[in-house]
Amino acid sequence: MRKRRWLRISLIVGGSGFLVLAALFGIAWAMTPIPDSTQKDATAQGSVIYYRDGKTVIARQGVDRRTVELAKVPEHVRDAVIAAENRSFYDDSGVSAKGTTRALWSTLTGQQLQGGSTITQQLVRNYYSGLSQERSITRKFKEIMISIKVDQSKSKDWVLEQYLNTIYYGRGANGVQAAAHAYFGKDVDELGVAQGAYLAAVIQQPSRFADPKGADLAAAEVRWRSIVQAMVETGALTPGEAAEQRFPKLTAPKKPFQLKGQGQYMLEQVTAELNRRGYTDEDINGGGLRIVTTFDKKLMEAAERAVKETLPEATPKQVRTGLAAVDPANGEVVAFYGGSPHQTEYDNAFSAKVMAGSTFKPYTLAAALDNGFDLSTRVNGNSPMRVASAPDTPIPNDSGRSYGLINLVSATQNSVNTAFVDLAQKVGTDKVAATATAMGIPAKQLDPHVAAATFPLGVASVSAVQNASGFSTLANGGVHMEAHVVKHVTRADGGKDTIEPAATQAVSKQAAADATYAMRQVVQYGTGTAARLYDRPVAGKTGTTDDSKSVWFNGFTPQLAVAVDMFRSDNKPVTVPGYGVQFGGQLPAQIWRAFMTEAMRGEPVEDFPEPSGLGYTSDYSAPERDYDERPSTTPTRQPEPWDDGGEPEATEPPFIDDPPVDQGPEEEQGPPEQDTDQPAPPDLQPSARPDDSEADPAPLG
């Protein structure tokens, strides 16, 4: 009786316990859905940024993963992974009872978790959001629940495909396609049996087997051989086929991708433009984009050579040089030189903005020609000049020379300050600003200066890219094409976004042709003769601010517009030992010519359009020159005293760089630093940097 009573009690307790466990399991099952999101790193595919040829890589961003369909993974590669990780994969319910029991016991006893997870469990752990990597009973139980549900709701092939694209293989490679390239330099569908078996071997210990040597190499061979044998046991290989396999030769691991030369600046500009066009950083780092830029590798190299080989070795490292080349037909920035990435936090081509000087005069000229004036229009070239808005401050010409009443060709050729001030007063500085904006100079950089009489003399600051883009409008018949650095983007799903730059009819075709004609005289007979290309016509303009704090040459052929500027990071005059204080027609023009000589080599010679016949006289060709040929200068724009209540523009580099203190040896240009550094004045210290929109000097006259 007593035994039967205890038996009944035991059965009742056992049955009750079973029911409780079943109820708990049912509750847990109901409360553990398959997560509806994946871990970012599990599916992220890095993006690749290319030069304009679409083949040469500039940079790689984000996770090295290239997702492939299961059908593209050879069967022997799949069989190797299954033999190595989960031989019962196609037969089990997503979990291994034996392996799970071992893992739970290890967790309960505090021992390190043992293997035994199925491919499905590994996928669930690494693929879905909400599953941490902590070693706990709760996390393991949740993993089991989700694995069973995944097995019931997804096909085995789906699970295997996600697993092969998710798992880390070492060498920075995520997924089997990236691993095939990392270890063997080929696509996964080109892997042989031995190579597939090695990738399966790597999964267990990716760090150890990534580049095995010595004992690690011996262990890798043992592991590889065991997988080949396992493939025999699973029927994937015959004994004869297994005997034919030889340990594969691995390619040397590639060094981590490093940006070189102008690469960092290219990446920054591409990223910034993609952001403006709606691509997030997450898209760029994990969206598997294939981004083709506008940058031409050969022209990028030519730009760097032009700067480095033209500048003398004694050039002080505080001297910054920027170069930008824009295709007038489409607005593509095909090349630039931004300086030394290790030397400054911003580049000299896109980000640095310095006074345009007399390179701004062509914008005034174009505005006049587009508003009823013509090349025969005569303006006051006498010096000094006073204007009604500031009668007490005279505006001088270089060396105080007076030219009398001169036409617009002579005014441009000789860069006569007073002539352009007079012309801007006649046209209206607001119309000059509107034209410059339509030609590509942002209004926010012009607006603070429009009311000043010196506005047409280039007191507003611009970047080399902006100035090249502006002049490209004249080369393109008055149509401004939006400057851009991205040609097209191919998404991971195969969709392609081609960049269509905005086109603006900034000035009429004839106004552009006439302005170009006047600018040709600058190169042929005026201040820009150092920029001549003897095999083709060139139009351009020099620019020099007062005290040579920024000096420019900006010019174009029908096929390419290029701007070169030089300035100092400490806002002092640009002086080069042995060359003296610089003007736009000197080293900037020489750099321009060096680059364009190479860039135009082999290109067809194209002529500029003819100017209008209005007032056409012999004055347009080669006027007498009995005056000082030094380029005219623009009154400098001195920084305002720092206002503690103001904030510098966060999106643009300041007019000056940090003071040149302890910058280390010059690496880009190579000269020893001259011992000429002086502490920056109080208003130029890094803690009190002015922005790019200080007030103009008082209007001169």
Automatic annotation (TrEMBL):
Residues 622-631 have a biased composition (Basic and acidic residues). InterPro entries: Beta-lactam/transpept-like, Glyco_trans_51, Glycosyltr_51/Transpeptidase, Lysozyme-like_dom_sf, PBP_transglycosylase, PCN-bd_Tpept. Gene3D superfamilies: Biosynthetic peptidoglycan transglycosylase-like, DD-peptidase/beta-lactamase superfamily. One of its GO terms (molecular function) is peptidoglycan glycosyltransferase activity. It catalyses: [GlcNAc-(1->4)-Mur2Ac(oyl-L-Ala-gamma-D-Glu-L-Lys-D-Ala-D-Ala)](n)-di-trans,octa-cis-undecaprenyl diphosphate + beta-D-GlcNAc-(1->4)-Mur2Ac(oyl-L-Ala-gamma-D-Glu-L-Lys-D-Ala-D-Ala)-di-trans,octa-cis-undecaprenyl diphosphate = [GlcNAc-(1->4)-Mur2Ac(oyl-L-Ala-gamma-D-Glu-L-Lys-D-Ala-D-Ala)](n+1)-di-trans,octa-cis-undecaprenyl diphosphate + di-trans,octa-cis-undecaprenyl diphosphate + H(+); Preferential cleavage: (Ac)2-L-Lys-D-Ala-|-D-Ala. Also transpeptidation of peptidyl-alanyl moieties that are N-acyl substituents of D-alanine. Residues 324-559 form the Penicillin-binding protein transpeptidase domain. GO terms for cellular component: outer membrane-bounded periplasmic space. Residues 61-231 form the Glycosyl transferase family domain. Keywords: Carboxypeptidase, Cell shape, Cell wall biogenesis/degradation, Glycosyltransferase, Hydrolase, Multifunctional enzyme, Peptidoglycan synthesis, Protease, Transferase. In the N-terminal section; belongs to the glycosyltransferase 51 family. This is Carboxypeptidase.
